[in-house]
Amino acid sequence: MGHVLAQLIPVALAAALSTVPITATLFILLSERRRTTALPFLSGWVIGTVAALVLAIVAAQALPGRPRGFSSLADNLEILVGSALILFGLYTLVRRRRTPTGGAGWIEGIGSLGPLPLLGLGLALNLRPKAVLLVVAAGLAISGAPPGVDDVDTLILIAVYTAIATSTVLVPTLATVFFPERMEPRLVVARDWVDAHGTAVTGVVVILVGVVVLAAGISG
C-alpha cells in the first residue's frame, strides 16, 4: 500500500491547494451568514470528493482487459492524465500573467448564498476540469494497487485522500466555527495571500503532480 500512497498523496495535496475551494471557503467564513452556511459548503465539498473518488475507482475497475490488459491500459491513462495536468498547470500560470489580480465576481458574492445553494456548490466544485483530472489520477492509483490491497485498505486509501484533499476547507471551517474571533484576522490575511499568490502556487503544484502521474504511467 506504500507504493499507492506515494502516488496518492501528491494528488491529494494538489486537490487541497486548489485556489477555487479555498477562496470560496474564505469568503464564506468572512461573511455574516457563516454560522449557517459554512458547514453546508464543507459537507458538499467532502461528500462530493468522496463520491467523485468512488466513481473514479469503480470506472477504473470496469475498464476492459482486466486483469491481463489492465496494467497497460491504466498506464496509458496515467500518461494521458499526467500530460493533461501539466498542460493545465502551464495554462494556469500563463493565464495568471495575463489576467489582473482579483477575485471572480461569483466568489465575491458567495457570502450572500443560503445553506442549500452552498451545499450544491460544494458538490459542484468537484466537477471542475482540474478536480476531475486529479480524482481520475487518484482513482487509477487506487485501482492499480497490488493484489494484496483488500477492500479495507481501499477504504483507508479513500479516507486518506479525502482527509488531505479537503483539509484546506475542513480545518479553517471547523476552527472558525469554534474560535470565530481568533480566526477572523487570520482569514483576512489568508484571503489576501491567496488572492496574490494562490493561482501561481496552484499552477506549480499541478505541474509537479502531473510529472509524478506521468512518470508513474511511463514506469508502469
Please explain how this structure is put together:
With 220 residues, the chain is an all-alpha fold. The chain has one domain (2-219). It has helices at 2-16, 19-29, 34-61, 70-98, 105-108, 115-124, 129-143, 151-165, 167-178, 180-219. α4 (70-98) crosses α10.
Question: Please, what is the average pLDDT?
Answer: 87
- Largest beta-sheet details: none
Q: How much helix, percentage-wise, in residues?
A: over 70%
Using the alpha-carbon principal axes, give the shape.
globular
Number of helices: 10
**Count of discrete domains:** 1
* Strand residue percentage: under 5%
Rounded to the nearest angstrom, the distance between the terminal CA atoms is 16 Å
Cα-atom Rg, whole angstroms?
18 Å
Low-confidence region ranges: none
Q: Structural class, please?
A: mainly alpha
Number of strands: 0
What is the N-to-C succession of helices and strands?
A: HHHHHHHHHH
Please summarize what this structure is:
With 220 residues, the chain is mainly α. It has 10 helices and no strands.
